[in-house]
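Subject: for your reference before the review

Hello V.,

The reviewers asked for a structural picture of the protein, and I figured it would be easier to keep everything in one thread rather than splitting it across files. Below is the amino acid sequence we used in the manuscript, unchanged from the supplementary table.
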Amino acid sequence: MDGPAPDTRPYDAFLLVSFGGPEKPDDVVPFLENVTRGRGIPRERLVEVGEHYFSFGGRSPINDQNRDLVAVLQLELRSHGIELPVYWGNRNWDPYLTDTLTQMRDDGVERAVCLFTSAYTSYSGCRQYRENLYDATVAVGDGAPRLDRVRHYFNHPGFVAPFVGGAVGAIDQLGREGFDTAATRLVFVTHSIPDAMNAASGRFVCDGETRGGEAYVREHRDVAAQVAAGVAESTGVERAYDLVYCSRSGSPEVPWLEPDVNDHLRALAADGVASVVLVPIGFVSDHMEVVYDLDTEARETAEELGLGFARVPTPGVDARFVTAIRELIVERAALARDEEPEQSVVGELPPSWTVCPAGCCANLRDPQRPALLGTDS
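And here is what came back from the structure prediction:
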């Protein structure tokens, strides 16, 4: 390392906050009960949903991927002279947030900076994490560390660049398989959410006025445009692209974001498209929604249709993404010291906030439920 270590005051730890997932068959239904608690979903339905996990030995990839990210991030921080210990806690499975915060308290951590393994603005991708952190700090009680979080990082160049490189590689793969890649369609995929949740995403109250909303879709469209432009610059070919959704759940009477990725592949095949590259911009790592919904279901749909198919890796432990996390930690520390650091972004949208304004991404089922890391906490 050249020069002094980056200043990460006032933080004395970093906390990776993730969703969690089962690690063996006996974990699957209890894990799904945690995820759906309070929604009244029958156990039989959870067993049915659990078949996705059982087909992979009852083990979600997400915990192993988080272990890898923690290990690589520890090396990244140390190589730049940053001596923050790295902790990891999940919302829905071991290591639970309450247990991790208890360990942090016992280790003497006073103030930590958090990163959620969800890059975009929405209730399920932000406020729900904040609610769970509130619950965990209450459970830990006196001495629980004070927490801040980095901004939503969907438009950080270190998150976007791996998708560009991965898409170029996927196009090359299709070319080696004999497809005319000049006509290959880019299909950007993210997790579907209810229309009402999208409408509330990024919506907040300021001076008595309601502002914002629909940030989830707007942010994904911005990332898709940046990745498509990067691919065009790298390959010399501008390709058509679309934003589609996967992993819909819940009542069929409730409208969710569409089109579904499988329906869209059928429509593209009917229009004469010969090959597609799926770019999972909604996901940080290759967890179950990627390896089942895309690598299994969507791939099978493409094969049935005779579509050439390639799927781009998620950022995972890509060095550019790991560097981005380090930069986000240093940036957030500077903001905590009331400084004005440079905030790297690509695309048309500005850097997101680090402290959510009142009412942002409201909990539509329980609007009064408290959450950390916001002005209405």
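For the response letter, the relevant points are probably these. The chain is about 40% helix and 15% strand. The chain has a mean pLDDT of 95.

Happy to draft the paragraph if you're swamped.

O.
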